[in-house]
Amino acid sequence: MKELLLRNVRPFGGALTDILIRDGRIARIGKAEASTAEVEDGGGAIAIPGLVEAHAHLDKSLWGMGWHVHQAGPALEDKISTERRLRRELNIDPARQSARQVALAASHGTTAIRSHVDVDTDQKLWCFDGVAATRERFRDVMDIEIVAFPQSGLMIRPGTLELMDEALANGADVVGGLDPCGIDRDPKGQLDAIFGLAQKHGKPVDIHLHEADDLGAFSMEMIIERTRALGMQGKVTVSHAFCLGMTDRARAAALTEHLAHQDIAIATTAPASRPVPLAAELRRAGVRLCAGSDGIRDTWGPYGNLDMLERALFIGLRNNFRNDADVEYALHICTQGGADVMEIADYGLREGAFADIVLLDAETVPEAVAARPKRKLVLKRGKPVARDGQALFTVE
Ligand SMILES: O=c1cc[nH]c(=O)[nH]1
């Protein structure tokens, strides 16, 4: 039996207490009796559950490879084809680059990641195999879910569906999709194919939907129809969903109501450059929201650092969240919201849950979101994996 006592911590910024961890789980929250456990003194730090990165691209960052001078043109198709060309030219090795991102994410207090991983007829399963190797290697440090993602299109690149099928048979966790109208120009074809894969493998679906306004709304209606028809409530996520930020608020409200009825979740990155789903409206309607960093430092763009506390700040800024309850909700999206979408069992800061815990110095949770202090200590299943903003393990 392995015990660790976190002394003098404040769950969610509340009263000072202790957290006793036994065999990787929270055994007790409350002032501890004399104990034989190993002790970590939190010194009054706030304790929150591990941050959840619900939309990443672990296969494609250039992190640690020097500065990349951006080459892709502005259109989505430019970014996709430039990346396909540069992957091999620059040797963006998915195993090495995903391992680097695991260390980076852990240093910021992330304990679970859903990563979209490109599957296409050029790379075939290279990206999947690399990220799957990282998932295995860091099993004790990070929960990693892999989405088999047809980044270059499904209907326009015959052979991709079969590769996705193979990735799912080999351990991919989620079926991905991408702009069924904008990229594939065949929404029925793509959506029937990916929902078919989901049914065949008994897996959830997570679809990138960049399409704006009416086009995005049309694709979203087709996703809603399939979710309802196949009884996949609670198993579908739409990532980005920029169309929900459309100026036609009546249409966005109608979509939102359907999303709530079908329990379809939305994953947002809260970008500054696009209309975005409005977090408060989705919350009021009962639509679950999670968040992610998207690709970081990649051939798509130079930004990002996988810090989900910073992502909570971006959500707050983008949604004009000012009062404490709203800022706390921004953090909820980056913790429990992601855990719900990833269906992580026994998540949270409560007795019996896994001891995935982050300590940080701040007066309150909203102050932590606003100031983004270094993570003082990060525990995965009760084991320290990062301290003072540094991962406690090395990657090449
Ligand atoms: O489709 C997308 C969008 C952002 N980043 C990616 O890698 N792919």
3D structure, described in words:
With about 400 residues, this protein is of the alpha/beta class. Helices cover about 35% and strands about 25% of the residues. The chain has two domains: about 5-50 and about 350-390, Urease, subunit C, domain 1, CATH 2.30.40; about 55-340, Metal-dependent hydrolases (TIM Barrel, Alpha-Beta Barrel). It has helices spanning about 75-90, 95-105, 125-135, 160-170, 185-200, 215-230, 250-260, 280-285, 310-320, 325-340, 365-370, and strands at about 5-10, 15-20, 25-30, 40-50, 50-55, 110-120, 145-150, 175-180, 205-210, 235-240, 265-270, 290, 355-360, 375-380, 385, 390. The protein has an eight-stranded mixed beta sheet. Helix 4 runs parallel beside helix 5 (about 185-200), helix 5 packs parallel to helix 6 (about 215-230) and helix 9 crosses helix 10. The longest helix is centred in the C-terminal third of the chain and has 18 residues, at about 325-340. The radius of gyration is 21 Å and the shape is globular. Uracil binds near residues 60, 151, 208 and 295. Uracil binds near residues 178 and 295. Keywords: Hydrolase. Its EC number is 3.5.4.1.
Describe the global form: globular
Going across the major beta sheet, what is the strand order?
3-2-1-4-13-14-15-16
Number of strands: 16
Q: In what range is the share of β-strand residues?
A: 15-25%
- What series of H and E elements makes up the topology? EEEEEHHEHEHEHEHEHEHEHHEHEEE
CATH architecture of the largest domain: Alpha-Beta Barrel
> Which structural category fits the helices and strands?
alpha/beta
**How many separate domains?**
2
Looking at this structure, what is the CATH superfamily of the largest domain?
Metal-dependent hydrolases
- Evaluate the radius of gyration: 21 Å
